[in-house]
Amino acid sequence: VARNRQMKKIPDIDMQVDDDAIKEITKFVKGFINFVQFGIDNKKEIIRCTDSRNVNVKELPDKVPESIPRFNLFRYSHVKDGKYTEFCASVLFTTSRRRNC
User: Which of 7, 31, 73, 101 has the fewest beta carbons under 10 Å from its own?
Assistant: First the structure.
């Protein structure tokens, strides 16, 4: 997330990012949490964090709403060749959108 003194933005998206969303992205990047969800406040034209926490992969489908547009980041931790793996390549980005759009 690009940060400057006037406005916090995601590159190529002309919309501000809420300070709380920035804090949750930072927690996610540092590995303190493995799930962050964002929504767009259309009236204020700003990206807000709507949920952030640690979830396991089985809980993930319940965290992604079917009727409300959302952007989700999830860090998938797993065991490969007997070794615990958690790294950037295991970050999933998903979106959901309102039905009947």
Answer: 101
User: How many angstroms from the chain centroid is the CA of residue 90?
Assistant: 13
- State the Cα–Cα distance between residues 42 and 34, nearest whole angstrom: 26
**What SS3 state is found at 2?**
strand
Q: Which residue shows structure tokens 């990206």?
A: 47
Q: How is residue 24 written in tokens?
A: 């949750």
pLDDT in tens, 79-100: 777 777 665 445 666 666 655 5
Which amino acid belongs to residue 55? Answer: V
Question: From CA 43, how far away is CA 6, in angstroms rounded?
Answer: 20
- 24, 54, 65, 91 from 31: Cα distances, Å: 11, 10, 24, 11
User: Cα(92)–Cα(37) distance, rounded to whole angstroms?
Assistant: 12
Q: What is the pTM of this model?
A: 0.72
Q: Count Cα atoms within 13 angstroms, Cβ side, for 65.
A: 13
Which amino acid is present at 16? Q
